[in-house]
Amino acid sequence: MNRIVRQQFKGGGIAIAILLGIISTPCCAVSNETITDNNYNIEYRIPDVPERTSFADETIDLTRYDMYERYERELTAACYMHSSTLLTIKRANRYLPVIVPILQKENIPVDFIYLAAIESAFNPLAYSPAKAAGIWQFMPTTAREYGLEVNSDVDERYNVEKATVAACKYLRNAYNKFGSWVDAAASYNAGTQRITSERNKQGVESALDMYLVQETSRYVFRILATKQVMSSPADYGFRIRAHQLYQPIKTRTIEVTTTIDDLAAWAKEQGITYQQLKDFNPWLRSRTLPNKSGKRYKILIPLTEDIYYDDKREYRTFDENWIVKD
User: Fold this and answer.
1) 153, pLDDT greater than 50
2) How is domain 54-242 classified at the CATH fold level?
3) pTM of the entire structure?
4) Domain residues of the chain, as ranges?
5) What DSSP letter does each residue of 223-279 carry, written as one string?
6) Which of 16, 219, 268, 300 has the highest local Cβ count within 10 Å?
7) 27 within 8 A of 235, measured Cβ to Cβ
């Protein structure tokens, strides 16, 4: 196997390099171009950029200088931000079995899993400084607009299933407005009004041709680069085995239409801990579940026989391309 890094360290140099994050392993899908750190004789290889890529069946030409450089920036970041990329893939194995069927049912291209990847790294507890929350990073106002309950007791932005349905509604509306899934993706970051306004002001059709703030300008290219790495992680040095992926955990569902005054006591009655209740239902935001209206809530209860990693477990892999078997 080729290595991205060749090192000739003395004394504690290897440990120092690891702490600095400058040792990397991998990579078949790299060019011969290198950058060398002469102090440690470390060689960094630059990932290859394809001539074109696609998103939701829309082809994107990467040969133009700005397309090439914007894509390469995000691809390089995805390859060298090791812990973030690894955690994204490991979590994806748990949550994509929930997310993908919803995208398919709602007729949203499955490539939008990579939008969720860059939004939250598939962390259902993700919360941004701007107060966006959950895997799909909804702001409170937008979440309510698309049918999610958001308050101090219940915040359905943290409900993976409901938030995914809401994201599908948003993306469908954006696609109907722009006629492009790429522009729909860009609008998820900038908002549909901003993309519409800049289309008119700049006289261009594609969001990729617009002059936008850095965050939005980079956004779609981050999605594209994440798709490339997650489509074949081993090519970029991420050598993962099935037992290292976070496993989906089987659950049973309890429907509740009344108030629960003490969620910790209620969890104990179901044979689980309060922590486990919160892990599988992060949308429960307080210690109680007030329900004067009689709304029907679905609470997931993990099956105790499926919560352990051991040699008896059948390890499930959502995408065989993610793992190595040697």
Assistant:
1) yes
2) Lysozyme (1.10.530)
3) 0.87
4) 1-48, 54-242, 251-302
5) HHHHHHHHHSGGGGT--B-GGGSPPP--EEEEEE-S-BS-HHHHHHHTTS-HHHHHH
6) 219
7) yes
